[in-house]
Specification:
DNA-binding; 6 helices; single chain; 6-stranded mixed beta sheet; about 260 residues; about 25% helix; alpha+beta
Length: about 260
DNA sequence: ATGGTCGGTAACCGA
């Protein structure tokens, strides 16, 4: 079972890239973030023509998540239980007994801002929610744009990013705290080359200069960790014309 | 040198 995540930064603009990537990589599940469109504008027909089912929860202009899949998902559940958040950032569904939780974690704007406080609060609510989900679903994958680089090796210049949003102490601690419930970074289960990132600022030729951060993750429960066989970042879509600022991440599970 | 580039939407906000 191949499970992937990709922040597309507007599904309307990136649909050709997504359709090409589905054809070339043929993931069983692809979690998309920042679709930036309402449910009525979701390109369902184009996705289905490519042989994929879709569940989605979106809004105008901002946020929005969608999960595409070869087989239809069941028990699709938007949001975090008990948290009436108008921002559409979470969508869970079950595929062949695997609970897949697709998240677009708040960006946080800058350390100390209101949006930063929202990000930390949001992560704590997600943690409580996932603890319950894990009890019900031992086979669980939590994936998406976390807007947090876990370690120094996930940042092109850790000294410059020290204390900055996406790499600040409170954010990294919140991510560790979330992973403490029993979630494992599939990327780090395997030997990886150095300086591998999933996001590069559009400005200053950051991608060409390899100035990135690894902020998109595929986390696996204990049972799914045991089944995980690989995890890699695909840079090919980021090299194309008019790319998303994020690259897709793909993990393979022996299921 | 505190900028820079995108996307969405219609003067800027969010990332």
């Amino acid at each position: 079972m191949r499970i992937a995540t990709w922040n597309v930064n507007s599904l309307r603009v990136r649909l050709p890239h997504v359709l090409d990537w589905l054809a070339s990589e043929q993931p069983d599940v692809l979690a998309l973030q920042e679709t930036k469109l309402t449910d009525e504008d979701f390109p369902r027909a184009e996705i289905e023509a490519a042989g994929y089912h879709a569940v989605f929860v979106g809004q105008k202009t901002y946020n929005g998540v969608a999960t595409l899949s070869r087989v239809a998902g069941s028990d699709a559940t938007p949001g975090i239980a008990g948290f009436d958040d108008p921002q559409k950032r979470v969508l869970a569904a079950t595929y062949d007994g695997v609970r897949v939780v697709n998240v677009y974690v708040p960006n946080g704007e800058s350390v100390g801002s209101d949006k930063f406080a929202y990000k930390l609060d949001w992560l704590e609510r997600l943690r409580a929610h996932l603890r319950d989900e894990l009890r019900r679903h031992p086979r669980l994958v939590l994936l998406g744009d976390f807007n947090i680089a876990p370690e120094e090796r996930d940042v092109h210049d850790p000294a410059a990013w020290d204390g900055k949003v996406l790499f600040s102490g409170p954010e990294r601690q919140a991510l560790r705290h979330l992973m403490d419930i029993g979630l494992h970074d599939t990327f780090r289960l395997f030997e990886q080359a150095e300086r591998q990132y999933t996001w590069w600022d559009y400005r200053m030729n950051a991608f060409r200069r390899k100035l990135g951060l690894r902020i998109d993750h595929i986390l696996a429960s204990d049972e799914m960790r045991s089944a995980c066989r690989s995890c890699r970042i695909d840079l090919e879509p980021r090299r194309r014309e008019r790319p998303s600022d994020h690259a897709p991440v793909l993990a393979e599970f022996a299921l």
